[in-house]
Amino acid sequence: MNSTSTFPSVLRELLRTHQAFLAYAANHVYTLDLTLPQYDIIITLGDTDGMTFKKLGEKTLITKGTLTGVIGRLEDKGLVQRLASETDGRSQIVRLTAAGEDLYRRTFPEHLAFINRIFADYTPEDIVNLEDSLRRLHRTVTTLRSSGGETPADETDE
User: Fold this and answer.
1) CA count, 13 A, side-chain hemisphere, 13
2) Residues 117, 128: one domain?
3) Do 78 and 135 sit in the same domain of this protein?
4) Distance CA 139, CA 76 (A)
5) Number of folded domains in the chain?
6) Neighbours of 95 (CB within 10 A)
7) Which domain holds residue 28?
C-alpha cells in the first residue's frame, strides 16, 4: 500500500476528530466558567495532594509557558494554590483549594458522563480496537520523532 495515498484522508480525519472532540468537551466546561486547559488542571489535581509544575505539565500536556498562566487564572478564581515544596526548595506544588476540590467533586462525574456519550454506540470491542489503533499510532509518531523522522528499513513501503 502506498502510504502517501492514505496521508491526506487519515490526517484530515484525525485532525477533524480532535477538533470536534475539543469543541464538544468545551461545551460542558464553558458552563463551569472555565477553559479546557483550566478544567484539565482541576481534574488532574482532583483527589491528589498536589503536583509540581513539571508533573502537571507531563500529565496535562500543557506547555510550561501556558501552564503558568493557566495556574495564575485558577488562583485568581480561588480554585488552586501554590505551596513551597517541602522536599525541593526550588519547586512549587500546585494544589486544589477547598473550592477547587468542591468543584472537582461536583462536576467530574457529570463531565465523564458527558464525554462518555461519544461512545454510546460503540461496542466494548470497538473501544478496544480504537484504543489499540491510537496507541499504535502514538508509538509510531513518538518513535519517529525521537529518531529524527527516520523510518527503520524494515518498515518502509516498497
Assistant:
1) 5
2) no
3) no
4) 38
5) 2
6) 16
7) 3-121
**Residue 99 grid cell:** 473550592
- The three state secondary structure string of the chain is CCHHHHHHHHHHHHHHHHHHHHHHHHHHHHCCCCCHHHHHHHHHHCCCCCEEHHHHHHHHCCCHHHHHHHHHHHHHCCCEEEEECCCCCCCEEEEECHHHHHHHHHHHHHHHHHHHHHHCCCCHHHHHHHHHHHHHHHHHHHHHHHCCCCCCHHHCCC
Core vs surface per residue 67-83: b (16+ CB within 10 A) or e: beebbeebeeeebbbee
Predicted TM-score (pTM) of this structure: 0.80
Provide the β-strand partners of residue 92.
Answer: 84
Task: Tell me the per-residue pLDDT of 81-100, one tens digit each, with 9 for 90 and over.
Answer: 999 877 776 788 999 999 99
Give the domain CATH number at 79.
1.10.10.10
Same domain, 88 and 149: no
